[in-house]
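hey so i finally got around to running the thing on that chain from the lab meeting. sorry it took forever, my laptop kept dying and i had to restart like 3 times. anyway pasting the input first so we r on the same page abt which one it is
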Amino acid sequence: MKIAELFARRPKQIIKGSRVLVCGLDFSLRELFEADLSVYSRHYQSVDAAFFSSISDLLGALERAYDIVHFFCGLSPEGL
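ok and heres what got predicted. didnt touch it at all, straight out
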């Protein structure tokens, strides 16, 4: 394979069977959230999206057995 082939444009591929959750706790990250949600939606058939008001709501959603969880939240400089 030539290096140019690695970066060649490929037809849109749909991945079947995987369940994806794009979620967050911080509405200030909505622009990034929407951009990444758009990418997942192009490649996966089952994509759920949500902003949760609490960790317990998030944990409840995770009980639905997602294959991929893309999570957005704010972090302090201390990592909290």
